Amino acid sequence: MSYAVMPLTDWQNILDSVRAKTGKSNPLVSGDVSGEIDNISGGYADIPNYHFAEVARVLENIENFKAAHPNHLIFGAVSDTHVYNADATYEAKSQNAIKYSAFALEMVGAMAECDFIANLGDNCWENGIDTDNALLGAKYSINTLKPAFERLTRYNLVGNHDKSDNTQMQYNLIGSHNVFDDYGRTQIRGYGYKDYTSKKVRVIVLNTCDYLNASGGCAISYEQKDFLMRALDLSAKSDYTEWQILLLSHIPLDWNGGDYNFYSDLQTILNAYEDGTTASITVNSSYALNETPSNYATYSSGKLVYNYSSKNAAKIIGNIHGHVHTNKVSKVANTDIARISTANTNPDLNKSESYPNYGDYSITSTEAAKIVKVQGTAKDTSATFYCIDLDEQVIYAYGYGADIDRTAIYKSATVYTVGYSLTNCTSSNSAKSVVEGSSYTTNISASNAKWNIESVVVKMGGVDITSTAYANGVVTIASVTGDITIAASAKAPYTNVIDAVGTEDGVRLRSGGATGAAAGFASYYFSAKGGDIIRVEFPNGNRASIPSNGVYCCTYSDTNGTLVTAYDGSTSSSVLRNTSDTGYEIHIPESVDCSYARVAGGPNGAYAGWIVTVNEEIK
């Protein structure tokens, strides 16, 4: 490459020059600034002007982000450079694509003061770096990215195309660039973590091609799984509840295809961490690397075990990865962890430009068209600058070149409870919880369609919001911000005398008005006098409730059961009225000298649910 690595002070001079030229202190604006760069560095003559303009455009986005979100983590990333030396045309395009993306990482990384730079893997096109041609392609990719990496903390990840049985060679080429606080048990395995203490972020870099399994596919050793189990636990830090965790990998952590067999174990670990429970992984010797899992801190009786109870307060930001050549925003399968794929840098469609139909990582054809490389423009390469708002817990991914902007929210949803206290009422919505910011609605109805809603009180967060949330039987909350309680009651528009006097089970009315014991029957004894109208309604039109002997009602002069009259099927229609499958009425003549009345029904519970009123309509 023709441009040299410059001291950081020179980059600051560049930044000052560009800002002075544009007349703006913040942010930068697009424009041809190559002359300013050349005056300071004496290089960059082979970088097209459109990439200087693209650098300024992306810097403007990042400067705006930084001004709005002061508590942040920022890093630049490329993935899947796939240098292929067997095709001269493609080789030239791919080498330029890497060179331009390296320029973007170096320029933006320095000017935006990125926390680190990441190459997410797959540096060559061949299936592994054990051939001379593949190794040459991988070396070109790594060496081209080197200037950007020499300026900032950098992470070089191993991709499946970078796999090799020669772990030492693989480490020398790729992993040796990494700067970790903890390299696990063996530094050359290419994984580890670094703590950004001032940001309270732990970045965990995983090697998803740690070794080759029996089928030649990528696998993760138990050594690395032991490392991940322990690395997720930040509880030793006094302020660990304020920390967050970022997971970087080449292959997405929920990958479950081909010969890659690490998905289920990683899901077990991540699920246990999210839930604050114990992760337990059975050690299967048939997939074990040349390692001794029984020496690991998490090993117990043939398993790797880690208890995350009260140790999982550090929030996982997400899994940012490569491999799938798309820029999909999603979640790691069966978790609440954000997942973002980084678009490929390599330039040609016939060399894996994008995989729009890659299973769970698919993007639409419209989205795929946006990331196709276009020679002679800034879209001849791509890179992504991830800007993470650590307060609001949102990832802003700013695309460079052929990549596009996207966002992912990783903040855990706050869930509020919904409580119901319903008397003679029903709620159409039986949900017991609702996510913060979501809407909530329910219809409150009387259990009996003929009853009236008597009162409704709606509270949210302990505050009475009935006046704005309830109208005409409907509770509506546009945005939930607290626990909800709904108290409602309904009342009949009449007095059911049965509710007052209760039921006398096992008693029926006989011919002539006498009472007698009868299983499955019941009677109701209540106050009534001449001139009263007794109305009876059967449950659900249960005509079978009428006794077979045809006795509807009897009146009495006292509580001793001294019969006055018995009303049956022969009673005058002026007294016994409106007999139907739904009920009947007894219009006691004024001349009847009585103090009480009795109705009865059955058998076998057929009387249950009767409504009996005195001088009140059943509406």
In short:
The chain has 619 residues and is α+β, with helices and mostly antiparallel strands. Helix content is 21%, strand content 29%. It folds into 3 domains: 8-409, Purple Acid Phosphatase, chain A, domain 2; 415-491; 497-614.
Q: Any overview of this molecule?
A:
- The chain is of the alpha+beta class.
- The chain has three domains: 8-409, 4-Layer Sandwich (Purple Acid Phosphatase, chain A, domain 2); 415-491; 497-614.
- The protein is built from eleven helices and 35 strands.
- The longest helix has 24 residues, at 88-111.
- The chain is elongated, with a radius of gyration of 39 Å.
- The N and C termini lie far apart (91 Å).
- The model is unreliable at 1-8, 24-43 and 349-357 (pLDDT under 50).
Which descriptors apply to this entry?
single chain; 619 residues; Purple Acid Phosphatase, chain A, domain 2; six-stranded mixed sheet
What is the fold's blueprint, element by element?
Layout: H1 8-22, H2 34-41, H3 49-68, E1 72-78, H4 88-111, E2 116-119, H5 132-151, E3 154-156, H6 167-173, E4 192-196, E5 201-205, E6 211-212, E7 218-219, H7 222-231, E8 244-248, H8 263-275, E9 278-282, E10 299-300, E11 303-307, E12 315-321, E13 329-331, E14 338-341, H9 365-370, E15 382-389, E16 394-401, E17 406-409, E18 415-423, E19 425-427, E20 433-435, E21 440-446, E22 452-460, E23 463-464, H10 466-469, E24 470-471, E25 474-477, E26 484-491, H11 497-501, E27 504-509, E28 515-527, E29 533-537, E30 553-556, E31 563-567, E32 576-580, E33 583-587, E34 596-601, E35 611-614
Parallel strand pairs: 1-2, 2-3, 5-8, 8-12, 12-14, 18-26
Antiparallel strand pairs: 1-15, 4-5, 6-7, 9-11, 10-11, 13-14, 15-16, 16-17, 18-20, 19-21, 21-25, 22-23, 22-26, 24-25, 27-28, 28-34, 29-33, 29-35, 30-31, 30-34, 32-33
Helix pairs in contact: 1-2, 3-4, 4-5
